[in-house]
Description:
The chain is an alpha+beta fold. Helices cover 62% and strands 13% of the residues.
Amino acid sequence: xxxxxxxxxxxxxxxxxxxxxxxxxxxxxxxxxxxxxxxxxxxxxxxxxxxxxxxxxxxxxxxxxxxxxxxxxxxxxxxxxxxxxxxxxxxxxxxxxxxxxxxxxxxxxxxxxxxxxxxxxxxxxxxxxxxxxxxxxxxxxxxxxxxxxxxxxxxxxxxxxxxxxxxxxxxxxxxxxxxxxxxxxxxxxxxxxxxxxxxxxxxxxxxxxxxxxxxxx
Length: 217
């Protein structure tokens, strides 16, 4: 086997062998790289084909999360509404407690007012004139006491029910008789016992006689 002396040189032991082995390794690496590229090219369509399969599952998961969010939002809104209702109810109850704190005491004091009123009602003008100075001073003290009691009632929201001449109101008046009077028919003719209210509550209905209109002659 002949060789060109210009282009070839004699085999130089281990160094030349290492060079050849390196060339062989390079060729093998190149083939391996090409094989990997082909394998990736073959696998790529499978991966691309698998991606569309994940679409429905992803859409279903998104829909599930949106449904959970909607449920949580609805629960939060309901909880806020319930809390607001509880707050308003508590405020109303506190306001009512402040407004009607004296209700029981006021009811007990009505009998005191009744007694004062009856003491003064039993005196006509002639009886007053016939009184001595001490009796007149006592009477003035009773009148001032009744006036002060009415002022105290008013400061706490306690008011007397409208009397004679007012329109009969079944929420405020208790009719015990019907009598002819100068008042219009259906109006209160006279009051037998004064009624009182506290705010929008009736502490005690007034006992009244209702007018049937003027007496016929």
